[in-house]
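Action item from last meeting closed. Structure (448 res):
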């Protein structure tokens, strides 16, 4: 999972504050869409076409028993009012949202009314983190005899209004950034619904300048890092019928077929196809990072070129886990095109620079105190101050009937010059530590 963000030198436009209200209304529909994970048709990092001999070919090549990079999915779409007749125009600076639903924003104490219209062909809902609600507005079902209540099962063609409130502990504190990042999603069947595409960002904040910008923030970016497992989507069979050459030859249990449908995406895009991550030098940038998925979705997100401020510390990355989110601030100082990528699999992110190390595990007799000159000093000291014989150091350094002494049998890593392991590579450091850097018994590259 990777994306490119672009820092430029440009003029700032100052906006005037708009009055705050205490009731936020959103009109959101679930709509089925034909989604392209690689709309540009090529890998932005290598320049290779996605459909031929490249790392990305496994995910984008259509065939007799392969779907390719085009899938039927469902996503949240915002409308202007309760008639759901006119879509709300998405601002240019929100084009990067991709598969994500519209951004829901509210301040502490606000009431949020979300009218949800289901324009898809099966039941869905909206469930949110970071807000409080009564049982009547909870979008998740329970096995309590009321499983099919409308709040958790909005049927096709129906609408339902969820009522949420932002509690004080749901908003940012003095030590937090101006807003906190959460998510909302469909929880009728949380696994299948989210793999099908129903997820969006939710912010609780202190104040904003307009309906889109936070107070003191020039640019906002929302990134969902998730493996969309199309094998666990409601639309798998439909995608097989629509996009494979011969649906009868598809083996849904084949591991290669399953892997080809696991889309390691940022906002629903692969291999740098995510658009719109452009900002200016010295902008105050707010990154809203969301985790979602299974136990495989434990990600280390890295920002190349510029640091982020996370919970008062400056760093170049952070950890994301499913259904956990984070807000990171950035004031880019370096101009250029930089990577935002996952560092959880280190070798996956090394482009054209594979390093091979030859490491052996060897048994040695290790002396924890090889310099014995201290003993000469100790003999003189002990003759004058015999009580020092009872020091703690004596326990570890003395050898006797019931004491081992300073020498132990151990096993250590040692580096060699080649795969024959006949000539050791000396670095003059000694010690039990292996060699620094990325150490692997076999260097390889992973395809994502």
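Sequence:
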């Amino acid at each position: 999972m990777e994306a490119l963000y672009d820092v430029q030198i440009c003029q700032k436009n100052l906006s005037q504050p708009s009055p705050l209200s205490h009731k936020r209304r959103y009109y959101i529909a679930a709509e089925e869409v034909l989604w392209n994970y690689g709309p540009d048709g090529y890998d932005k990092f290598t320049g290779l076409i996605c459909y031929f001999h490249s790392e990305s070919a496994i995910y984008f090549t259509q065939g007799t028993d392969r779907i390719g990079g085009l899938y039927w999915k469902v996503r949240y779409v915002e409308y202007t009012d309760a008639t759901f007749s006119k879509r709300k125009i998405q601002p240019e600076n929100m084009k990067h949202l991709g598969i994500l639903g519209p951004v829901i924003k509210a301040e502490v104490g606000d009431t949020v009314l979300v009218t949800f219209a289901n324009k898809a062909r099966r039941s869905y809902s909206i469930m949110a983190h970071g807000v409080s609600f009564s049982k009547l507005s909870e979008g998740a079902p329970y096995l309590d005899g009321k499983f099919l209540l409308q709040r958790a099962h909005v049927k096709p063609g129906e609408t339902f209004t969820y009522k949420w409130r932002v509690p004080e502990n749901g908003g940012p504190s003095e030590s937090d950034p101006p807003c906190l990042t959460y998510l909302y999603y469909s929880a009728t069947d949380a696994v299948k619904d989210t793999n099908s595409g129903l997820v969006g960002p939710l912010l609780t904040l202190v104040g904003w300048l307009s309906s889109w910008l936070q107070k003191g923030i020039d640019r906002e970016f929302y990134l969902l890092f998730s493996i969309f497992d199309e094998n666990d989507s409601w639309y798998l069979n439909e995608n097989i019928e629509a996009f494979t050459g011969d649906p009868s030859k598809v083996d849904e249990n084949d591991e290669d077929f399953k892997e080809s449908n696991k889309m390691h995406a940022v906002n629903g895009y692969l291999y740098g196809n995510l658009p719109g991550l452009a900002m200016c030098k010295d902008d105050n940038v707010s990154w809203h990072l969301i985790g979602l998925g299974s136990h495989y979705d434990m990600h280390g997100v890295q920002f190349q070129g510029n640091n982020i401020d996370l919970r008062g510390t400056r760093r170049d990355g952070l950890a994301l886990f499913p259904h956990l989110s984070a807000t990171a601030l950035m004031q880019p100082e370096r101009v250029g095109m930089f990577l935002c990528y996952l560092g959880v699999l280190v070798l996956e992110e090394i482009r054209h620079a594979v390093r091979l190390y030859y490491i052996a595990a060897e048994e040695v007799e290790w002396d924890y105190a090889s310099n014995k000159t201290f003993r000469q000093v100790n003999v003189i000291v002990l003759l004058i101050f015999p009580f020092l014989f009872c020091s703690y150091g004596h326990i570890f350094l003395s050898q006797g009937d019931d004491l081992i002494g300073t020498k132990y049998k151990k096993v250590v890593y040692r580096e060699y010059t080649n795969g024959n392991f006949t000539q050791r590579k000396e670095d003059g450091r000694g010690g039990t530590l292996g060699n620094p850097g990325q150490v692997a018994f076999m260097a390889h590259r992973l395809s994502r």
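Note appended to the action item: The CA atoms of residues 211 and 416 lie 61 Å apart.
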